[in-house]
Amino acid sequence: MSNPAVPKKPGTAKGRRYLGSEIVFNVILTLFVLLCILPVIHVIAKSISGRAPVVVGKVYLLPKDIDFSAYASVFNDPTMIQSMWFSVLWTLVYTALAMVSTILLAYPLSRHYLPGRKVLMVVVLIPMYFTGGTIANFLWVKQMGLIDSPWSLVLPILTSTYNTIILRNFFESIPTSLEESAKLDGCNDLQILIRIILPLSTASLATIALFYAVARWNNYADVRYYINSSKKFTLQMKLYQVVFASSSSDVSMVEGGKNAVLAETIQCAAVVFSTVPILIVYPFLQKYFVQGVMIGAVKE
What we know:
The chain is mainly α. Helices cover 68% and strands 0% of the residues.
């Protein structure tokens, strides 16, 4: 009887099938990566290209007539910089509060001795499949007096059911013997959570924090619905204005722009500018990403 742990020899029929499937998988994965990367390269190339090549559509993956005027227009726009700092501030506030609420919800649901645990889990799952819709959310925000308040970007989406389930499953995978030993030493539930559970959950916590931060950073719809003052626009809302409100003859949405700078290059520069903060943060959390999702998503 053959040992399944022994790799297939390339000369055998099974080995050739294994090698063929691996090649097909690698080709498909390479094509998928190219589909993700090539548009980004195209946008970057267009953002630093001159006006003439962009107008005639000659810019593909490499920039032509390199010109950084579009980035100068973006950085010279005070509203763009203001929107960026506003986005950074409220992304940090939202991520911190969302993590606290998710932890406080996921930990009790992970304890099998919690009375009514199954009923509470059903209640948590309902919003994942049935939502009130945009109008209901707007009316709720209005009744709470949060219109034109930055808190309207935080409170309505404070806790994600998906992230709660991932974290709950991870908490369940932690041996209960650790909790029992801590209780024998006189620790209460809050001390157990802070001193034992959270230090063992670094991977999942970092992953979920990244999920929350990216979701808040990329969201602009709620800004359109709830925020009236332009001083409270997030960077994504400003980017939305630049991309959809600008035209080749109108760069007024970027107040620092010059008429000689094509609006299309300004749009691309704004897109690149808005992605930089996430690109800076992601490498520091990448080592936790796969581990956190896999451990939290699989329940043994």
